[in-house]
Known about the structure:
The protein is an alpha+beta fold. It has a single domain (2-37, 53-148, 169-186), classed as Chemotaxis protein chec (3-Layer(aba) Sandwich), CATH 3.40.1550.10. Helices cover 32% and strands 30% of the residues. The protein has helices at residues 7-26, 52-56, 71-75, 92-98, 109-132; strands spanning 2-4, 35-40, 43-44, 47-48, 60-68, 81-88, 140-141, 145-148, 163-171, 174-183, 185-187. The strands form 3 sheets. Strands 2, 5, 6, 7, 8, 9 and 10 form a 7-stranded antiparallel β-sheet that branches. A two-stranded antiparallel sheet has the order 1-11. Strands 3-4 form a two-stranded antiparallel sheet. The longest helix has 24 residues, at 109-132.
Amino acid sequence: xxxxxxxxxxxTMIISVxxxxxxxMCHVAPSAExxxxxxxxxxxDGRMRLFPMEKFNAPAYVAIVNYYLSPKHLEAKxxxxxxxxxxxEDLVERLFKAFGRSASESENEQACLDVVGDxxxxxxxxxxxxxxxxxxxxxxxxxPYKYKNAVLEGAQFDYNLxxxxxxxxxxxxxxxxxxxACMGHVPTKGR
Length: 191
């Protein structure tokens, strides 16, 4: 038997894992309530279109992790879920400080991409743990794909999906993180 993760539950899990991850890794709590909503997936050529600079009306770093039902599905690029983290560029120095890294590293674009990619990977893995707790199958994660300002090729996603969850977070008294995610049919454990 397969189940589709309820969109409201997915949104609630995203809020929980992002807030917990920021509290544990960055030692910061949200400065405002997260703003959650459901959005249409805009598809082009079998990929989800992404618009990073629209999230903050400013430059942004983007990291994407895909979920797969098995390593075989990963090889075939047959994603069952997609997790996208947008991080506002002008606050990335705070992220470096929160990670205990030198603020001067934030001047290196590759280092910025890497730290946002690492954060995305940790949050995506924490979300996976929440999904496992629902008695759903263990999922395989991709390595993070990292970008700045534009993702021309779009993101892999389950082509049977038409909606995604979007949650905006404020830390350090400013909206600086937006997460988009969608999840298709995930079988229960052992099936």
